[in-house]
Amino acid sequence: MTGPGAYREVSLLDLAEKFPTENAARDWFETIIWPKGERRCPRCGSVNTHAASHARMPYRCRDCRGYFSVKTGTFMEGSPLSPRKWVFAICLDAMRPKGISSVQLHRGIGVTQKTAWLMQRRIREAFANAVPQAFDGAGEVDETCIGAPE
Questions:
Q1: How confident is the model over 77-95, as pLDDT tens digits?
Q2: pTM for the full model?
Q3: Which helix (H) or strand (E) holds 97?
Q4: Which one of 43, 69, 124, 147 has the lowest number of neighbouring Cβ atoms within 10 Å?
């Protein structure tokens, strides 16, 4: 379905079902950070890594001997918040065209308003620095059709 009715907002219930645990959120971030399933050290780029028993850094690089997690080298680095709270913050902020206020976010995920504001700042900076994908196919802008066959 395309057109005005195509946009569907994700509900909090949908998010809670998709990410019921911290492990589900961590696994989702892993598929984004390491799309081919090849875990890489964010410091040296080596694939010579293994699971570690560290409480907050579950992986270790055998080459540079550093510990790392899905947060290392991302906008979440240095944050004590769980990956699940980050997933909820990203989804809640991104699912509305103008985002949500930090007050709404703090109520929605149970952090202080200052923390919510800082999270939004990091998320928005990360998306602003993302490399845009090439546009392919037909597009509609203000009732103007561009590139579609007539």
A1: 999 999 999 999 998 888 8
A2: 0.75
A3: none
A4: 147
